[in-house]
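Late entry, evening session. Most of the bench is empty. Finally got around to the prediction I had been postponing all week. Sequence below, unchanged from the version circulated by S.P.
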Amino acid sequence: MSPSLPIDSLKDTFLTQLKSHHLVVEAETGSGKSTRLPIWAAQQGRVLVVEPRRVACTALAEYVAQLRGDQLGEGVGYAIRFDNRFNDQSQIVFVTPGVALRWLSDDQLAAFDTVMIDEFHERRWDTDLLLALLKQKQTHRLVVTSATMDSLRLAQYLGAERLQATGRNYTVEVSHLASDSRNMPDIRGIEKKVAEAILPLHQQHQDILVFLPGRKEIAQCAAHLKQVFSAAIINHQMDVIALHASVSDDERHRALTESDQQRIILATNVAETSLTIPGVTLIVDTGLERRTHQRNGRTVLGLHAISQASAEQRKGRAGRISAGQCIRLYGKAAPLERLTPPELQREELVESMLAAASCGARLDGLQFVDPVPEKSLMLARDKLLQMQAIDPNGLITSHGQLLYPLPIDTLFAHLITAMPDKASREAMVDLAAGLSVYQRVWQMPSGEENREKLAQWEPNHCDAMALVKLLRGTVPEWLTIDRDVLAEARQLSRQMREALQLPDLDAASSVKREPWLNAVMSAVPELVYVRREKRRQALGNGYAEVSIGRDSRFPEQAEAAVVFDQFALPGKGVKQNLVLATCMAPVTFAQLNQLDMGTEELGEAEVTEAGCRVAHRRVYAGRVIETRWQAPQGESAFAALVEMVLDGVLVDGLAEQVRADIHQWNLYLALGRYQAETCTRAPEPVEARDWLNTQLAALGVESAEDLALFGADDFPFDGIPTWEREAFDREFPYQVLLTDLTLNIEYRVGGKRVLAVYAGGNRKTDPKRWELPRWQGWKIQYRKASRTIDIK
């Protein structure tokens, strides 16, 4: 017989209202809503319970099966990635949101009568999307639960009845460890602060739960606590347990099962909701979490202070079995957000838009609890159109239907389906699997000897090929890997291989690296980055920039790479994000040229004994990746001849003459000196290159040899009337020649400013005002290199 819980008071009302209404149930953490409500709802048909986390799915399924006296996988089951235990007769099935969305796209969840979305206040994009789709379809009875969400607003959104359960089994005393009441959560010295909070109190409590932002802090804190407890010569053994999304089943059971030994459980916010951790009477809350947010158009993972709602959730983990205590390592009046912002407002929407399309809906046509940013919608739509995953109407294409079921990022799914042959497709599957797990499979060796062995084992210095080799073969004994992560990557690869009817991982086809990477570059050109010429650590693709990640093997002599994986860190203040390239595959400029990447540009021209020739350059992201010298032909001939004239190579003196005439004409117009009765040219600004093109065409010039027949006097520019030009040049000179100093003059007519720019000469001092033309009423400045001064 399970103990009485606060939620029990709602049972009769819940069952009565569920027959004809959607329900929003608001109850504090520990009230029993995650376990009781599915059992009650099952009296009125099959129930799908959507839990935001895998750990909660399996743990709750086990517990609810125990409450009902069922064998797990029979009356109560679960389904998560790589693992499911349920059958067609299971009355209650716990699933993650991703599984629920895929089942919705397959058969509209036809096998279930009630869908319960638990812990909705976490505001994941997939739970928000699932609720919006089910609200639109109106095919299921909906139950949405939350400990902290604004339930009245949610009930109004759904047109649902709102039920509230109040009361807690035991009180939780809250105290704050901060020098000032407004101190925000701070990561600095976090392991020491945790130890200082625990040491004076651990003997007064049973188990202790510490909330930390991530795996790194959990490992640091565990090491520090063991050291502190050892140094304090404490006479009883303390079991320090990690709890996060990627812990092993053994660690999860240790954390969620009562023990005779006192435990310190170091957890991320995976322990914030749903999970019942028996024996916990002391909470230490650092007030920190890692979550995504948008910055400069990218989704980045950053360290954040938690919301007030999350703080209440964390506090609620204590007080289950007796009076509890919560120590917060920040000020009582710290200005925390009230609620955690929804993921749909802080992340890119490519995956959610494809999921919506797969379920027969347009993301921008759904009604959400909170509005979705218009800019994010446009960017997602553009990306999916480029992938040909949706059509112009936002509906899913046959290609999109292939992408969506693959349990990986939409980009990787697109790359897999875009591969032209089986071997390349298999390589892309294995690489995608290796990059889709929760952390790196392998670590770069630190010693020189092992790095040399790595270079011999994978001689192309290609992160991508190294990862593919690891998934397919025996792991070298000198390479540090995470075997649990590797096992999950291999399992994901096998799952995708089976879905795509490819050979099993053990019988993988050998892939030729260059054709595979050529196929990747053809499918998604924006993955190609070239090195900056001066900042060798940085690479660009014309739209974005990445820095070479510390664990990448990208060699110094390589100039271009396919960047398969990136990690974005938020910049400080107004600075751009720091985006690290963490999986790079070196490629050559020759490969880029072969694929016609970049744009063709005409470079300098020259006249040799063999005749005239022009540099044809291929430019990608600001780098010249190929230069070919060719004789001017067709339309490029005029452009080449014009460039040679403007460079002073052809027709001596013409370049300076044309620039001066056209500069003065444009200035004449800007100053309002134009008079229709005296000027023969229309009052329109002229560009030197365009004018010369027109002149050459009119004269029938086709080659440098033709131009040799002409002199500068054969190209008169009919601009300022001849009788007016000399006086205008004295008043507004194009160039000023002083002793040992030549100045080019620029006029800023709108601001009545003259800028005298150093063009040559040996003078060390600045020009004096008396040396320059009068320029009555104009502000005069002198610029040399990056230095600009006022001349008075």
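Two things to note before I forget:
The domain at 172-345 is CATH 3.40.50.300 (Rossmann fold).
The longest helix spans residues 215-231.
Will write this up properly tomorrow.
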